[in-house]
Every structure is written in C-alpha cells, then in structure tokens.
Design goal:
This protein has 131 residues and is mainly α. It contains five helices and two strands; from the N terminus they run ααββααα.
Amino acid sequence: MAVRFINFLKPYAGRIFFVWLVIVTILTFIPFPSEAMTRIDIGKIEIRLDYLFHIIIYASGIFLAFFWRANKQMKTSPGDMIMITLLLLALATGQEFLQKLIPYRAFNINDIISNTAGILTGLPLTLMVFK
C-alpha cells in the first residue's frame, strides 16, 4: 500500500517540494501570531512553540527535497545529498536575514538554530527512510 502511494506521488515530488518552498517563503514574510510564541514545558526544558514549528517545517523540507531528487529506486546520490543539505541550510539562514529588511519582522538567531536543527534532525530520518 505504501509503495503504491509513493509511486503515485513520485511524479509530483518536484511540485510538492516547490509548494513547500513557496509556503515557507510566504511564512517568512507574513506577521507571525503571538499565540505561536507560547512556551511548552517539557520537564526542565522550556521550548517556544514557533521553534518547534521551525524544526518540523525544515525536517519535512529536507525529506521532500530528497524525495524530489531520488530516482525510481528511491536512491539519492551523495552529491545530491550534500547539495540539498547545503541549499536548505542557506535558505534557512538567508530567509532569517531577509526578515531584517521587513519592518514588522525581526532577525532571531534562535530561528536559524531551530531551522538548522530541523534540517539536521530530518536528514538522518530521511536517510533511514530512503535506505
């Protein structure tokens, strides 16, 4: 069942990744609701909800990028893996720097850390799925 679903989606993988990219870019430029700044207590650790969103969004982004670039046997070349990871890291950092130019948005190093954490968390999980 899962294999049929993956085979069904594979021809659209590039479009799905492009939609993800557009949504992430739009989210970069629109005001973020203050409710997302809610903090979650996990034992002794306190995490802002928007940082968790960053991690989930970029973890899904690396998966979608690998899915797009994978061949029919769901294999991705090491060069593609490195390129995808570096480009997503550049996107994650660059979008945060662009927010300095938007009056109602602010640069936040913790957002870059959360984006990077999402990529670095999503990378091994994605590699496990693709093996």
